[in-house]
Write a structure and sequence with these properties.
heterodimer; A: alpha+beta; Dna Ligase, domain 1; 4 domains
């Protein structure tokens, strides 16, 4: 896994196989690849890591009710981890060592390698988890009650989460192990040390040794946005289902709006009397909190619910929540939406609900849009992409320069071969045969010469033994003509390659003008 | 194709329009000739930088080059301007200079009104607007231009290939009609063949700083703007035959050729009533009397008379007087200088004090320098102390003015590394892949990378992009990238320089640069004076000063005792670290074989380790003859005169030339043309004819083919790196001068070398080590003893009576302002008595103080590194930028930490101390890192480097050491010479290309390297040369880092371990 920082791509995590090949965290990606050409690399996703860590923290509540994730810190390598407050938990599994072993075993079963540190202070536990294992053969290190000072003494000062600068400063003075600091933290020398280093140093030492209390906060549960409705008696009426949905949507929307939160996924569940539940899932392109559009989206799908013997309960939950972006509304007469729209984002904003509705009807992957793509080759001058709201907000690609005779509205996905007779070397066709019909050309404009994208041509090859050979480029062109047949139809037709005396030219029809 | 046609391409953009043209001028010219054009007009964007290349190529190809430029005034249409005569050319150059001087470097800013300066006799091709909407504006602007610039105008029409060309042509014809402009056909050429299209696209991407994938419509839709035949152009201009015919007419009427640039020497101040010639004669004779107090020898007298006559005939006297004036200025300021190159063939130059090779003692070849037969200007190169050359340059500007003096340009071209980097970026490789690729490139290679290197850089060879990067970067190599200033080639003219060639601002302030480089000037016969910088002269000046200060001996280069046998004896042992020119690996191993005994041997020594003699395979025959293992014989009686001094083996450039003349029947002019053909314009492809002529000629006259081939090869080698005898002699003087100091005053020599860094092959660590081996005591950097530079201190215990004190300049990252502040404070009020006192009085910031502490510079205050850092942290200083507040009243100065309880910090381990020494001073006086690692190295099977002396030839040995020097001489077909060092000895590795390919990373990257190899020996001790031919290399650098104790067994696994700066070994790489 790698991240890009500045111009450098650096390895941030490597598996055992990669480490065996010499790949190290912090290495540049290119160095790593040079060491191990077969390396499989992926960009790291810090946000996903953080989410996974939070999930693990929640999962750890089976060991302790009080758990928290320590997010990664770019300043302090190896900072990411989990806190478990295990006071009063250890005896349940037979002591601290057994607890630590249980935890690491559980992680191993889940496919994680984990090291545990257990101590009377968070600082000491943090240090032991990250640096303690190198002094034991086990995957956990435990400081006995009151034994923090002794346990920490051989660990490097970096175990105190000090940041690179502070560590370097200590290193230059030979203060490398936490134990090296002990003579300087008591008595008159404490002041001497305090003058020379930021207060963080003494705070961290004191906290680790239990000389002052350092609280850890368990992860707060996110507010859940869910509403329920139980009917006094089961109903099979469509109108009941619709009204129930409307009411739940209204309640949820009010709550979301009160928190300034929008959601992108809504799940409506209907419970029937025989214990079945049916779900309708709505996804939106941008965070939504308003009742009206939401209700409209659900209305499209409520018909899909089979009331069966009767439905007596409903639930509506919102997922993928995030704060709603605040937008300045335009002042003046345009505010009502009749005036000209100045901000292109307004167009995008108007498009988003449409995309949502189409998604709702057709499915996410079935909604697409054509985007301009700057390329001289006609078939590459646009690209088909699936539409999402973000797409709509992107600035449009530059349009082709306004030279040349213009391009047909209808472009064939694949140019169709035609037989043609033309004046050499680069005259327009006099007649051509397309789909069995012969057309005589009355008027023609051209040629417009477009070269093929040379980097996509076959023939480029890299071979360690021989120098690379470029393909022949002089003839990798097309000459386009806009022709009008005697019947009055206008076609876009091209000759592939330059005229050659020794071989007939290949002609293609690429599009039709209206 | 018909041999001639009526079409001449008049709108050509070469690659001197940087990143806009994709072909070299010579490629365009050759292609035009191939297409049967009688002429070609190359007009680059606001520059004449490429015209000389085009001109030379056109002459060779037998067509005419129309010299012009493309101008883009900010408020008017673009146009191509061709001057029709010399005066018009001068005006074009002046207008370009005007636009360039007022713009940023490499830019040109012109308004339409500025073009009034072009005057008459210009042929102007106006480029029409793209869009018809602008036609009216175009006509207005043209009328405006016409009102103040009366000359010939045309409208240039270039096919658009966009499907609308016939309509466009109609429109342009109409526009021409309305404006009163005749339409002329052009193809707006940027490529010589369509195959350059990918490169043009990549150049566009480089220029716009976008990757190809995003280039979109910035790229051209096609590659049609290549040179096209007259027939093809006629077809494109169907119905407009006059537009085609007009091209040839226009070309025929542009009469100007660069050959017309008659160069005029500046007028030197001559004494009233005296001509330049008689002034020169007077000065020369006066100088001769001073040079030979005992009477001028007859030989010199004759030579002077002869030279003065030739100089008079060719009217070169002003040039000699100019150089004399510059040298006089330097001498008056005490700046050491000495002429080099072929000027040392001249008795006049010697008598004027420009050169130092005594004509009485050597055979001079004045004709090599100045010759009536050869229509080319003399070339005097003078070396000045590198630190003070700027004074000389400013003197020249002051004296002649910027309108008459300018520095020649150096065309900076793409080399492998830059080409790969830019093409890789344009092709969308990630920054790191590009960095990894360029890391595989050795030095300043111009050979391109191959797919193997791409693989090594971790790129996937199946990806066609990799092949494209490899291929296109090779094509880009050799393309001009930008103009830079030549190291010191001055062009000085009588009239305004800007009418000879455009002048632009250099990147350096107070510098202006002309657009032509040295080869261009040579090709046009324009005189220049090379004001060069030579580090050794700075070093020698320091040597003489230190000698006078500390030993009371006042000497100069001229009065140094000559021919000291002990100095030669030292050199014969290969003991030459620091000595000028002969300290390279190759020279060091040559010295014991050549065993110089006399000054002339040094001349040979300097010349023999050069590509010429090596490629010509002349080295071994010479050594065998010198050792008496082979009789001295001459290939023929006629060559005995040529080769007499060098035992029948040609070693010098002139000898090879003379062989061509005497043995192959070349005329002197042809011989010189041959040398030039090799040296300058390599693309002319005439080398084969020369080869045929020379080898054939010699065989026909009865010489052995083998000898003839070798002589030719030698000339090939001389082409680029030739050393004429006179030049070798000038350098040999400095070899002797520096060797003399090294032998007699090693302390003086080492101090002068350290203070003249960077120079030479070796880093301070090796200079210090070498000085110690020569009995010099070295004292550490200390705030209470060191000056900014290294100094000598009296030392009763040492044999020389002086010890060397390292200077504060040795401390990495310490600025001279800070260093000077320390010395000034100490000089003012005496030594510092503690660190607080030092901090207060010197006013240094915390950063500078910490650098000194880490460099262990507080020794005399009784403070170790860590103690000093500890105390520093406790000092109440401002931040690094704010000056130190005065604590108390001065003199009282009670340091604040007096009352603190004492803290004992862990002591540094010996390894840590040495590691810190290397980090902060790049050398250590304590111990060699290899000594500390000896046990580990021995356990891993590595023997000390000194053990090589004791093993037999051919034995396999494992040794290890710090990599000091890596060198790949151009002459050694890819062999790399590597020097490694351990605590007792230096070992020389030979790495063959095949081994290098396998161990590239180790060879290039290892700081501490382990080698297994086979021992090669030559000669007998003490004149023995030992090499180890490497077979396997291991990067032991991690061991070096383990000196710190930081790299314990868990290093690397330990996510929080303090990353330390790796211990760098300052190695130097040459190629």
């Amino acid at each position: 896994m790698w991240i890009g920082s500045g111009n450098r791509l650096a390895v941030v995590a490597a598996n055992h196989a990669a480490e065996a090949a010499g790949v190290r965290v912090g290495q540049s990606l290119a160095d790593a690849r040079a060491l191990c050409p077969a390396l499989v690399t992926k960009p790291a996703d810090g946000a996903a890591d953080a989410r996974a860590l939070t999930r693990l923290a929640a999962w750890c509540r089976r060991f302790s009710p009080w758990t928290a994730a320590v997010p990664a810190d770019p300043e302090i390598p190896g900072e990411a981890g989990l806190w478990l407050e295990v006071t009063g938990c250890a005896h349940l599994v037979g002591g601290e060592a057994a607890l630590a072993a249980t935890i690491t075993r559980a992680f191993a079963r889940a496919g994680f390698s984990a090291r545990a540190g257990l101590a009377g202070t968070p600082g000491a536990a943090h240090a032991l988890a990250r640096f303690g294992a190198q002094f034991t053969d086990q995957d956990h290190a435990i400081a006995p009650p009151g034994g923090e000072a002794e346990a920490l003494s051989p660990l490097p000062v970096a175990a105190l989460r000090l940041g690179a600068n502070l560590c370097e400063g200590l290193d230059a003075l030979g203060l490398r192990r936490i134990g090296d600091l002990y003579p300087l933290i008591r008595g008159p020398k404490r002041a001497v040390l305090a003058r020379r280093f930021p207060s963080l140093l003494l705070e961290r030492v004191d906290a680790a040794l239990g000389r002052h209390f350092e609280p850890i906060s368990p992860d707060r549960e996110r507010p859940r946005f869910a509403t329920r409705l139980t009917l006094p008696e089961p109903s099979r009426a469509e109108a009941v289902i619709e009204r129930a949905c409307e009411r739940l949507v209204g309640e949820l929307a009010t709550r979301l709006a009160a928190h300034g939160i929008g959601a992108q996924r809504f799940v409506f569940t209907a419970f029937d009397t025989v214990g079945r539940s049916q779900r309708i899932v709505i996804g939106t392109a941008r965070p939504l909190a308003a009742a009206k559009p939401l209700a409209r989206l659900f209305a499209l799908k409520l018909g899909g619910i089979d009331p069966g013997p009767g439905i007596d309960g409903f639930a509506l939950e919102a997922f993928e929540t995030q704060p709603l972006p605040l937008r300045q509304r335009p002042l003046g007469p345009e505010a009502d939406g009749d005036g000209p729209r100045q901000d292109p984002r307004d167009d995008a904003a108007a498009l988003a609900p449409l995309i949502d509705r189409l998604h709702g009807r057709l499915g996410r992957k079935r909604v697409g849009r054509i985007a301009l793509h700057p390329n001289h080759l006609p078939e590459r001058a646009q690209a088909f992409t699936t539409a999402d709201a973000a797409e709509a907000e992107r600035p449009p690609a530059p349009a082709p320069p306004e030279t040349g005779p213009g391009r047909p509205v209808r472009l064939f996905p694949k140019p169709e071969p035609v037989d043609a007779m033309a004046e050499v070397p680069d005259g327009p066709p006099v007649w051509f045969r397309w789909r069995g019909t012969r057309h005589r050309v009355a008027r023609a404009l051209g040629p417009e010469r477009i070269a093929l994208d040379w980097w996509t041509l076959p023939g480029w090859q890299a071979n360690p033994a021989a120098p690379a050979q470029p393909p022949a480029l002089g003839t990798a062109i097309r000459d386009y003509y806009r022709v009008e047949t005697e019947a009055g139809t206008r076609f876009w037709i091209y000759r592939a390659g330059l005229h050659r005396a020794d071989a007939p030219a290949h002609w293609y029809l690429h599009g039709i003008f209206p | 194709m018909t041999p001639s046609c009526d079409y001449v391409e008049l709108a050509v953009t070469s690659n001197f329009s940087f990143l806009r043209g994709a072909s070299h001028p010579h490629e365009l010219v050759d292609r035009a000739a191939e297409l049967g054009m009688a002429a070609i007009g190359i007009a680059d964007r606001a520059t004449l930088a490429g015209v000389v290349r085009g001109h030379v190529a056109a002459k060779a190809a037998g067509i005419r080059l129309l010299t012009g430029a493309r101008l883009a005034p900010e408020d008017g249409p673009e146009m191509i301007v061709y001057p029709r005569d010399r005066a018009a050319y001068g005006r074009l150059a002046r207008v370009l200079t005007l636009g360039k001087r007022r713009a940023e470097k490499a830019e040109c800013r012109l308004d339409l009104a500025d073009l009034a300066g072009l005057g008459a006799a210009q042929t102007v091709l106006l480029l029409p607007p793209e869009n018809p909407i602008d036609d009216e504006l175009f006509i207005n602007k043209f009328n405006e231009l016409k009102s103040f610039l009366e000359t010939e105008y045309y409208l240039a029409a270039a096919p658009s290939y966009d499907g609308l060309w016939p309509r466009r042509l109609e429109r342009l014809a109409g526009l021409g009609h309305r404006a009163g402009l005749a339409v002329v056909a052009v193809n707006d050429v940027r490529l010589h063949t369509p195959e350059r299209r990918p490169l043009l696209d990549v150049l566009t991407c480089i220029r716009k700083k976008i990757p190809l994938a995003q280039a979109g419509y910035a790229r051209a839709a096609h590659g049609e703007h290549h040179l096209k035949s007259g027939a093809e152009m006629a077809r494109l201009f169907q119905g407009f035959p006059e537009a085609i015919a007009r091209t040839a007419e226009i070309a025929a009427r542009i009469g100007f050729s660069l050959d017309e640039l008659a160069y005029e020497y500046p007028l030197e101040p001559v004494r009233a009533g005296l001509s330049a010639d008689s002034t020169l004669a007077r000065l020369a004779l006066k100088g001769a009397k001073a040079r030979y107090p005992g009477g001028v020898p007859e030989k010199v007298r004759t030579a002077l008379a002869h030279e003065l006559r030739v100089i008079r005939e060719l009217s070169y006297a002003p040039y000699f007087l100019t150089v004399d004036d510059i040298v006089r200025f330097a001498r008056s300021r005490g700046i050491l200088c000495q002429g080099r190159g072929s000027a040392a063939n001249s008795a006049v130059c010697y008598c004027l004090g420009i050169t130092a090779v005594d004509p009485a003692l050597s055979d001079l070849l004045f004709e090599r320098f100045v010759s009536a037969a050869r229509d080319e200007p003399p070339d005097i190169d003078v070396d000045f102390e590198h630190e003070r050359r700027e004074e000389v340059i400013q003197y020249i500007y002051d004296k002649y003015g910027r309108d008459r003096a300018g520095l020649a340009a150096t065309v900076i071209r793409y080399r492998t590394r830059s080409a790969v980097r830019e093409v890789g970026k344009a092709m969308g490789l990630s920054e790191d892949s590009v960095a990894a690729l360029s890391k595989t490139v050795w030095g300043r290679s111009s050979r391109g990378i191959d797919a193997g290197q791409a693989q090594e850089a971790g790129l996937d060879l199946r990806d066609p992009t990799v092949a494209q990067v490899v291929t296109l970067s090779r094509e880009l190599i050799g393309f001009p990238r930008h103009l830079s200033q030549h190291v010191g080639g001055f062009v000085i003219t009588k009239g305004p320089l800007s009418e000879l060639v455009p002048i632009e601002n250099a990147a350096m302030e107070d510098r202006t640069v002309i657009e032509w480089d040295k080869d261009d000037l040579d090709a046009l016969g324009i005189l220049k004076i090379d004001v060069l910088a030579l580090g050794m002269l700075s070093c020698l000046r320091r040597c003489f000063a230190l000698l006078a200060d500390h030993y009371g001996r006042v000497l100069t280069l001229a009065t140094q005792p000559a021919e000291d046998a002990r100095v030669y004896e030292m050199l014969s042992r290969g003991d030459s670290i620091g000595v000028f020119q002969v300290e390279s690996r190759a020279q060091m191993s040559m010295l014991p074989r050549l065993k110089p005994r006399l000054f002339y041997d040094l001349v040979v020594e300097v010349a023999i380790v050069r590509p010429g003699p090596i490629q010509g395979d002349m080295v071994h025959p010479y050594l065998r003859r010198r050792a008496g293992q082979e009789p001295v014989s001459f290939p023929s009686e006629e060559l005995a005169g040529v080769l007499g001094k060098t035992l029948g083996v040609p070693l010098f450039q002139e000898q090879a030339m003379k062989i061509a003349i005497v043995a192959a029947g070349f005329s002197p002019t042809e011989a010189d043309a041959l040398r030039r053909a090799m040296a300058t314009f390599k693309h002319t492809g005439t080398i084969h004819t020369f080869r045929e002529k020379m080898v054939g000629g010699m065989v026909a006259r009865g010489y052995e083919r083998d000898f003839a081939e070798r002589c030719f090869k030698q000339i090939e080698g001389f082409g680029t790196y030739g050393f004429p005898e006179s030049h070798a002699a000038s350098f040999a003087l400095l070899v002797y001068a520096s060797a003399w100091f090294k032998f007699h005053y090693p302390g003086v020599f080492a101090a002068a070398l350290l203070n003249s860094q960077p120079m030479g092959f070796y880093a301070p660590a090796q200079i210090v080590r070498d000085a110690r081996e020569h009995g010099v005591r070295i004292r550490p950097v200390d705030v209470n003893a060191s000056d900014w530079e290294a100094t000598l201190e009296s030392d009763a215990a040492s044999a020389a009576g002086q010890a060397l004190r390292l200077g504060l300049n040795q401390v990495k990252g310490l600025g001279q302002t800070d260093g000077d502040a320390v010395v000034a404070a100490r000089t003012l009020d005496g030594p510092f008595y503690d660190i607080a006192d030092m901090a207060r009085r010197s006013g240094l910031g915390r950063g500078a103080l910490a650098r000194l502490a880490r460099a262990d510079a507080f020794g005399t205050l009784g403070l170790s590194r860590r103690d000093a850092l500890w105390l520093l942290r406790g000092l109440e200083l401002g931040s690094e930028t704010t000056p130190l507040p005065l604590f108390d009243a001065a003199g009282n100065g009670g340091p604040k930490f007096d009352a603190e309880p004492e803290v004992t910090l862990p002591a540094l381990l010996p390894g840590e101390s040495v590691a810190e020494d290397y980090r902060t001073l790049s050398l250590s006086l304590r111990a060699h890192p290899a000594a500390l690692l000896r046990a580990t190295l021995a356990a891993r099977g590595f023997a000390p480097c000194s053990s090589l002396a004791g093993v037999t030839e051919g034995a396999r040995v494992d040794i290890a050491g710090l990599a000091l020097v890596r060198q790949r001489p151009g002459s050694a077909s890819g062999v790399i010479f590597m020097t490694i060092e351990d605590e007792n000895a230096v070992a020389n590795l030979v790495v063959w290309p095949r081994t290098f390919e396998r161990y590239r990373k180790q060879v290039l990257g290892a700081r501490l390297v382990g080698v297994r190899g086979r021992v090669q020996k030559e000669g007998r001790a003490p004149y023995q040369v030992i090499h180890l031919v490497a077979e396997r290399l291991i990067d032991l650098s991690p061991l070096l880092d383990s000196l710190d104790g930081a790299a314990g067994p868990n290093h690397g696994k330990n996510p929080g371990a303090v990353p330390r700066t790796p211990i760098t070994v300052p190695s130097r790489d040459f190629h």
